[in-house]
Every structure is written in C-alpha cells, then in structure tokens.
Fold:
Amino acid sequence: MRDVAIIGVGDTKFGELWEHSIRDIGMQAGLSAVSDANIAGEQIEALYIGNMAAGSLIEQEHLGALVSDYSGLSALHIPAVRIEAAGASGGMALREGYIAVASGMHDIVMVAGAEKMTDVTDEEIPTIQMAGGDQQWEGISGSTMASLFAMMARRHMHEYGTTRENIASVPVKNHKNGAMNPNAQYQKGITMDTVLKSPMVADPLGVFDCAPISDGAAAVILAPLDIAKKYSEQPIKIVASAAATDTLALQHRESLTRIDSIKVASRNAYKTAGIGPKEIDVAEVHDSYSIAEIISIEDLGFFEKGKGGPATLEGMTEINGVVSVNTSGGLKARGDPMGATGVAQAVEIARQLRGKGEKRQVNNAEYGLSLNMGGTGGTSVVHIYRRL
Amino acid sequence: MRDVAIIGVGDTKFGELWEHSIRDIGMQAGLSAVSDANIAGEQIEALYIGNMAAGSLIEQEHLGALVSDYSGLSALHIPAVRIEAAGASGGMALREGYIAVASGMHDIVMVAGAEKMTDVTDEEIPTIQMAGGDQQWEGISGSTMASLFAMMARRHMHEYGTTRENIASVPVKNHKNGAMNPNAQYQKGITMDTVLKSPMVADPLGVFDCAPISDGAAAVILAPLDIAKKYSEQPIKIVASAAATDTLALQHRESLTRIDSIKVASRNAYKTAGIGPKEIDVAEVHDSYSIAEIISIEDLGFFEKGKGGPATLEGMTEINGVVSVNTSGGLKARGDPMGATGVAQAVEIARQLRGKGEKRQVNNAEYGLSLNMGGTGGTSVVHIYRRL
Structure:
C-alpha cells in the first residue's frame, strides 16, 4: 500500500444554514478544498461522500453522483459513492478514500461529508438519530440516543465516582475552543453553571451536554504522499486508518462504560502508526454527548479508565494540556452535521498540524488523531496524522 | 494492486419475504456465502454492505455494524461499512470490497447486499425510488422512475424505430430465464401478449416492463487470487472493476437514449480486462425497466446503437445467444431488492462461470460482466469476471 497524504482541506460554517441546500454546502466545502490543494477540479479521480441520513432528511439518496453532478464534474463521469456508518459516515468515507489512494486505484481523491438536518422538524430528529442505534432492540422501546448516553453517564458515575461537574467540564471546554473557531456553530464560551442548570434532556444530561442539530459540509483532498509535495507546501500524512464495530445495541455489551470499538480501532491505529497515545498532541473526538468524550479519552488510552472526568475538569485536555482535545469546539460547539463530522475532524487536525489553528493553535503539534463514532459506538473510525 | 477473486457466493430467494427481517435475510445470504467459500466466519476481516434506502424503508441506518452484529461477528469488532449509490449500491459495495482486498488492507472480505422493501406501503415506494434520481429537478415535478424510463423508451422508439414489441421482448426473455432460477421472485414464463396488454404504468411501459418491489439479500466472499485456491476449487477472478457517474437528472443530459455512465464504466473495464464486448459470454444488466436493458446492451457495446431492441426480439440475448443476458431472470423476474441487486448479479455470474447455472447454464462461459445502475444512470458500476 502506498503512503497517503491530505493535500487540501475545506469546510463551511456549521449551523442552521436555512439559505443553503445540501448541494450548495457540499460544493462550497469541496471548492474550498480544491483551492487549498492547488489542483484543478478536473484532476479529481473519485469522490467519497460521507452522509448519514439524506434519504430520511431530504428524500435524496445517491449523494455520490449528486455531488459529482453539482460540482460540475459530471462531464468527467468519475466514480462517486456515498459511505454510511451513522455518525461515523465521514470518518468511514475518509477511510475508504484513503484505501482507494493507498491501493493505487486512484491518485487524487476528494472525500467530502455533508448533512442538512434542519429541513425536518425537531420532532423527527430523534428517530433519525436512532437509525444509528438498534431500532429493533432500542428504538422500539422508546430509547433515544440521549437516553442511551445518559445511561452510560450514570453508570460511569456509579463505577468510577465521575461527578456531574466532571462531565459538564467537557462542553465548557469545547465551547471555549469553539469561540476561537470562525466556522463553529456556537462561538461563545459557557460557564459550568450554564451546563448544570440547562434543561434536562435525559438525566443526568442537559441540553448543554448534547451536540446540536446542524447543517454543514467539510472536504479533504487526498493524494499519494510521493506526489503530495507537488501540490501542497504542507501535506499531512495519514499514518494510520482503522475502523472497528461493536453490537449496535448498548444492552448487548459487556460494559456500559467502555466502548470496545474505540479500543480496537485505536489499538490497531497505534500499531500501524508505530506510536502510542502519549505521542498524540491534538485529537478530535466524538463528543455527541459530553459523556462520550470522557469515555473516548479513556478508551483511546489518553487517560486511565475512570480518570477521564477529573482529567477534563483539571484542564488536561485543554489546548496545550496533556493532549489538546476538540480544539475545533468538538461536536458540541463546532456543530454536528452527522455525515460531515468525521471529515471536519480531519480538516481541524490538518489545520493544527500545519500550524494554521489560529487562536486555538496547539504548540508544535506533530501527531494528530481523530475518532469518529456511529451511534453509541456501533462503529468507531480512528485516523492518525503526522506533520511532515 | 493484487488480483482478487470471488471464493464464495450466496443469496436468499427474492420476493415478498414477510416473515423475515433485513437481519434474517442478510445473515442467510452471508452464511450461505461463508459456507460456499469453505471459510470460518471468523476469517472475515471486513464487511461491505450494499443498501439503498433502509433509513427510509425501515428507519435503520448503520447497516455495516448491524450485519456484523447479527452475523455474530461483533466480538471480532471488524470494520464494516454501508455503501450506497441508489440502485447501484450492491455493485458499488463489490467495488469497494474489491479495492480493499486489492490494496492489501484486507485479505478475506464479505460483500453483501440487502434490502427490505415490503415493510412500507406501495404508495411510499415511488418517492423512495426517486431518491436515486434528482429530487430537486425531477421528483419535485412529480416524475417517477417509471416516467423517466418511459421518456427514454419513447425517444428510443423515435430515434431508432425501436418497436413496442422490441421492448416487450426483454421481460419475456427474462421471465423465461427466471423460470429456471429457484431463487427468482417470479419463476414463470410470460408471453409477449401479457406484456403488451399489461396495465399501463407510464406510456409506453406497462407493469410487466417494470421490475417488482422485492425483499432479498446476496453475498460474495472475496480473497486475494493467490490464496483463493486454498479455499475454493473454482475461484472466479475479478478482472476489472469500474464505476462512472452522470448527471442525476435526465434533463441535464445530451441524449435520452444513451447512458454515458455505462459507456465510460464499461470502456474502462474492458481496457483493464484487455478484452472487448465480443469476449463476454454472459452478462447481468440492470433491467429496472425493460428499456434499460436495451440501452444497456447497446452502451456496453454488445450491439450497435439502435439495434438493441431488434437483437433482443431476435433472441440474440437469450441463453447461448450472441451474449447471454440476464440468465438469472434479471431485475424483472429475479426481483430487485435495490441494494442487493448488484451483489446478486455477481452471484449469478460466478455461478455461470463455475458451470453451476443448472437449467439456465450458458455453454462454456469464460468471461462474464455485470452492470449495476443507480437511478436513470447517475451511477453505473461494471465488473468483468473470468473463469480460471
């Protein structure tokens, strides 16, 4: 397999983009990545599109051909495909695009993620989100994603003494970071008190523990490492791409406080990269719910099991802490347009490793990691990146 | 890139499978392929699942993890992903699985396609099918897939003198073939008269020109060619895998009687395989509507443009004709569970090249081809296979 690098990145602002269709935002992110990569659109040989639920959200499937079409590439008739793994669709699209370049099948590939969530009513969203869980075992009994993560939170508190304040420190940090990201949905800091007193969604999680409903798109351009320098002054090497699955339903797992798909995917990624968690300087992880970030930083090996909460409260995951986690603002503050999220994570890591993190730049970041998750961890996708 | 072979195939009966969930049929096809490949399920390193619209049909996305889970593979935490390209989802899943093995990322990979279409009312189906077309330009004005293919048919009649009987000869042939396929949805021959007098769907196409609504699943096991003989006495080599796109909306194309994604994908596939259309002995093509088969056999190069209709009526695409087309019964008689179709095509070709086509066996078949299409040709995926 050939080495693969990111040679260009682009994204849209995340938020309630009433004035833009999924076509608009997909194109906007794609064009911005093409321009960043210093390529012509005609050089793109294949498209990999991460999207979770456009069929349910806007009655439109076939987003591979759609993005090719609306990007003006239809005359080139390039292969294009949509990749879906619930909330991990973007990360999985990156992985499939990576494999396509690594294999030698294609040289220059665009991976884009896009989702338009605000075209349906808020009442429809929980069912669409639960399509990433197990409808037959969980959805049917009225479980929502928030309720499942709430159970994980309660059990984590019970087993490890994690406090409500520990958990609430995740959104406080992520809003602080999002305030420094001009493309974040929420660019405003919040206090611990705001989180603790926010309206309850599923005990113990309040509104401020839950990532918002978002529209948005992000894109990266991949190329074989040996030609990457031809296009980009700062190509970012993808040193590992790993994915793993677990049971869809939480109830079928051995533990509520551990996500095995994260453990397996990250273990495999570290092995391929030849490094361990201690080498990671900056990480984007899947804080769809605040507790998810705590479990993630434990199962990624950044902190011992049970210590993720205190570590966050003590500032160890702040920018330039032990490891800088969710410098973009994470899903909570940057926003979570489901299929776009995994690609947006790669965009943020590439910016950090290029030293283009602006006000949120991590000092001397060499290794980055992204963890994109589907459902309660039915799928996890981990990528490790290195500055060259 | 490494050479890749199919070492096992499996499928379910296609039809109205009221008594089975998508989990059941996915497992049934998968287990049958595993058994055919003489492997243990634990040897599977990754899953690629072709599915078009489970989000809309059964409110369930995340089918990669779901199939892994319900196949009892969750304890192995293998990577699993759903691939979607509308009606070409199965063929595209085969292509992504092929790339994963060719790259060296994985050795033994299962590609499965599954769709459960009968859990919604018949009234909901046209909208879900149109999610493979262009909702913004076509669906919004009330176009259905049938109406779009009807326009292609009318224009083909106008430009090339194709007759209603030419078009109707497609379902007549495919029902004849389906009658010899024990897993086909319709195992009954029909007459030309049945087609011509069938209730009108969209002029000139009647009910018997349209593939049915189906449940079903199919699976293939892929392995590097150099170890394929270890498992299978008759591995089938995939000699080319190509995909191409076109505009989603018919109205944006230069011609209504040509599908450029088929032309580009097949041209690229022939080039990789080092053969031309004349070498193909057996082909499964995408007869979602009868006219689609006629356009396909022209754009694949089997017959000159405008000659596909007469060729079919004259029996040139019957079993042991010039090229044996849709020996399985095609989408019309075998059934069309959308995401399963492309994988079922590969299953049929593998059976033919192994000489396991039973009553519908093509004499001495060496080269096979499958063409799986999404929408009106927004995506086409072509694979070429060779007997070893």
